[in-house]
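Journal club prep — side note

Before the paper discussion, L.F. wants everyone to see what a predicted structure for a comparable chain looks like in token form. Sequence:
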Amino acid sequence: MIGGQLNWFIPFLFGLLTLLPLSSVAADVRVGIDNNPPLTILSTNGNVSGLLPDLLTRVAAEHDWQLRFVPCQWQQCLSQLEAGQIDIIAAIAYTELRAKKFRFAQETVITNWGSIYQRPETKFDSIPELSGRTLAVLKKDVHFIGENGIQKLAQSFGADIRYAEVDSYPEAFKKLAAGQVDAAVVNRLFGQKQQQQFDVVPTPIMFNPIQVRPAFSLSSDPALVA
């Protein structure tokens, strides 16, 4: 289903972006990539693919950019972008707090939200039912510590949830499948794409709708951001 939804999207957005004047963009563009399928995919041998790398590669070919993909765990990606060690994070949720640290593209690539997954034999239907349980969560993820993330939602329900912080969504699902945690928080696109591989299932709990856009270092060329 995801593939069908996105097949039309890359040509559409590519057409919009290629209308923009980007002639002054520097040739070497460093793109931070974590493993967040289907938006960004980083294989064990270092190959990069996914919706956002494909989109950036097409735009780069049109405007003579030289893309250099820089593999990083999510927390590292954020730190490197803030320090100007990379120019772009390909897929990141827009928030007002992040907009003070980074420059965001004006175009929203896709909308997303947080989902909680469980093993098939468990039946969590609400946040209060997770009280006393352990959730795998991605470090510094907007669905974990954001204004409408699970941490604040749990507090509003008075649910005493323990959090096991991990470096990637695949690690969260691995811990869940192995029984090391009771549930896992991931974004809905990753969950839909990877749930069968890890033999996990979604709960009805969905939260924190967000806009996914490319984000740029404050030191990046303004023409690149345009």
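L.F.'s comment for the group: Confidence is low (pLDDT under 50) at residues 19-24. Keep this in mind when we get to the figures.
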